[in-house]
Design goal:
The chain is mostly helical. Helix content is about 50%, strand content about 0%. Among the domains are: about 90 residues, Serine Threonine Protein Phosphatase 5, Tetratricopeptide repeat (Alpha Horseshoe); about 120 residues, Ankyrin repeat-containing domain (Serine Threonine Protein Phosphatase 5, Tetratricopeptide repeat, Alpha Horseshoe). Keywords: ANK repeat, Repeat.
């Protein structure tokens, strides 16, 4: 009778010994305990993110204090199951400043992006949480970090939404005013496109370029300036503000092969209020825009030597009578007696 001998691995013989079996049981137990600890930490991390999102400071402190400090780094890491969101990002999204501060004190990374590449500073700027922005800037985050894909900075996101307080804090933190996103749009361009005149005013006071064109980083850019996009969208306050800073009303457009004026752009889009104002103010100087200027801007113009004696041009319609103070060429000037009243 043929007998088949199957070779048995050495570790099987080793397990037949009582000591080997005991060692194997101990190894399995340690692996189980480690996996249980990791699972527990993962559950705590999710609970911490929820607590930060909801702004429950007591739960945030409880979860941090109940976890050994050696495990805080794991607890504050991104949660892959939730698109890489961290507790700091969740707190920045909802504007919970106290929770965000507690997490940063525990060692959380203030500039950790999620799976989409968004950082807490960007989401705070988009949602209008100026206090969160100030807290993150004190943690030395990159203020001009651009989002992957869109290339948007925190300043541009705040300008798009019209969050004036956020724009003010970002500019005070050293944000660059003339950085362009992936489409070539600057923060000032975005302000004028969406009609946020106060944000545009802050940018201009910070030295933003008034003539930087859309598509400056793209060869196929349309060449539109902040003034032109304000005319296209019909945002008269932005048009008035840009005009007070000396924005050019005629700009060569390489894509069209000719010079285009702001009046033409507004006329094509039927922005009649803008067209009327542009026509009425063709010869205006800087100080003629005093009604849309701040006191600081007027003082700056005066220090630069602006002519305070410059007169407004006289604009008359065809039906209006001639001004009696205007000299008419060819007219004879003779002294005529004043008319006498008949009694």
């Amino acid at each position: 009778m043929l007998r088949i001998i199957v070779p048995i691995p050495d570790f099987v013989w080793w397990l037949r010994k009582p000591l080997g079996f005991l060692l194997l049981a101990m190894m399995v137990r340690k692996l189980y305990q480690a996996s249980t600890a990791v699972t527990c930490l993962m559950k705590r991390r999710k609970a911490l993110i929820i607590a930060a999102r909801d702004g429950t400071l007591s739960n945030v402190k409880l979860l941090l204090s109940g976890t050994p400090s050696s495990d805080h780094a794991f607890l504050l890491q991104p949660e892959e199951a939730w698109q890489g969101v961290t507790a700091v990002y969740a707190a920045a999204l909802r504007g919970h400043t106290v929770c965000c501060k507690e997490l940063l004190l525990a060692g959380a990374e203030p500039d950790q992006p999620n799976a989409m590449g968004d950082v807490p500073l960007a989401i705070a700027a988009q949602e209008g949480h100026a206090a969160i922005i100030s807290l993150l800037l004190r943690s030395n985050v990159a203020v001009d970090r651009q989002a992957p894909g869109s290339g948007a900075t925190a300043l541009q996101l705040a300008c798009m939404q019209g969050h004036t307080a956020c724009v003010r804090v970002l500019l005070a933190g050293g944000a660059a005013t003339d950085t362009a996103n992936a489409d070539g749009n600057t923060a000032l361009f975005l302000c004028c496109e969406h009609g946020h005149v106060e944000c545009a005013r802050l940018l201009l006071e910070a030295g933003a370029s008034i003539e930087l064109r859309w598509g400056a980083n793209n060869a196929a850019g349309s060449g539109a300036t902040p003034l032109f996009i304000a005319c296209i969208m019909g945002h008269l306050p932005c048009v008035q503000l840009l005009s007070s800073y000396g924005a050019r009303r005629r700009v060569p457009i390489p894509a069209l092969g000719r010079v285009l004026s702001a009046e033409e752009v507004a006329t094509e889009r039927h922005k009649l209020e803008v067209v009327e104002w542009l026509q009425r103010t063709r010869s205006w100087g800087a100080l003629h825009h005093v009604e849309v200027m701040t006191v600081g801007r007027v003082r700056a113009l005066l220090r630069e030597g602006a002519d305070v004696m410059q007169r407004l041009p006289i604009v008359r319609s065809a039906e209006s009578p001639p001004d009696i103070c205007t000299e008419v060429p060819g007219a004879e000037h003779s002294a005529s007696p004043a008319p006498q009243l008949e009694i």
